């Protein structure tokens, strides 16, 4: 009988955690400095419920970023990676841009509270996808080989995040970003 009661509690706990993480993603996407109270309100739970599952705000921020990255990986997994690396990169940047646009403030929150290198670890799958594409483009002779691949991957990430900042400040229209990012990145990789 104890097993029967434990399962519903576990399911309830999982639902509660999912609500809290979704609330954290929403609150931190609006305001990277959102408090635990803000997150609890967005999740529709009390502050003590949040702390019952997440000991610290950084732990909660990491869970929200990890959840956003998992959702992003699902979206990016659907991008066709076949064909000319330049065309693949264009498709990948379009999909990546929408993800960056949605989660730029969340990323900012994570960079403020997570240990150095942790954000990079969480982004490893996305970075690996881009790195493999650049390597293929180098083998095909369409991407430059005179710069380290890790440098080029980081530049792409910075261009995407810089574009989000430009949109946020109103200096660039969001609808123009995919073309601007693609032209910028292709000029760097094709240099």
UniProtKB/TrEMBL annotation:
Record domain HTH tetR-type: where: 14-72
InterPro entries: Homeodomain-like_sf (IPR009057), HTH-type_TetR-like_transc_reg (IPR050109), HTH_TetR (IPR001647), Tet_transcr_reg_TetR-rel_C_sf (IPR036271)
PROSITE patterns named in the record: HTH_TETR_2
Keywords: DNA-binding
Keyword Translocase part of the UniProt annotation: no
DNA-binding region extent: 35-54
PANTHER family: HTH-TYPE TRANSCRIPTIONAL REGULATOR RUTR, POSSIBLE TRANSCRIPTIONAL REGULATORY PROTEIN (PROBABLY TETR-FAMILY)
Protein name: TetR family transcriptional regulator
Source organism of the structure: Paractinoplanes pyxinae
Upper classification of the organism: Bacteria, Bacillati, Actinomycetota, Actinomycetes, Micromonosporales
């Amino acid at each position: 009988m104890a097993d029967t009661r434990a399962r519903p509690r576990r399911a309830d706990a999982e639902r509660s955690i999912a609500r809290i993480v979704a609330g954290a993603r929403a609150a931190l996407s609006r305001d990277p400095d959102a408090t635990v109270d803000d997150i609890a309100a967005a999740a529709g739970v009390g502050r003590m419920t949040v702390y019952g599952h997440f000991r610290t705000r950084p732990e909660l921020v990491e869970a929200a970023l990890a959840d956003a990255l998992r959702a992003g990986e699902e979206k990016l997994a659907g991008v066709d990676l076949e064909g000319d690396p330049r065309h693949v990169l264009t498709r990948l940047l379009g999909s990546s841009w929408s993800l960056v646009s949605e989660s730029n403030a969340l990323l900012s929150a994570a960079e403020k509270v997570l240990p150095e290198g942790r954000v990079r670890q969480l982004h490893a799958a996305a970075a690996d996808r881009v790195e493999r594409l650049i390597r293929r483009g180098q083998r095909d002779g369409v991407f430059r080989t005179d710069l380290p691949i890790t440098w080029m991957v980081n530049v792409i990430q910075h261009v995407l995040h810089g574009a989000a900042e430009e949109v946020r400040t109103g200096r660039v229209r969001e609808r123009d970003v995919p073309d601007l990012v693609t032209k910028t990145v292709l000029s760097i990789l094709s240099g």
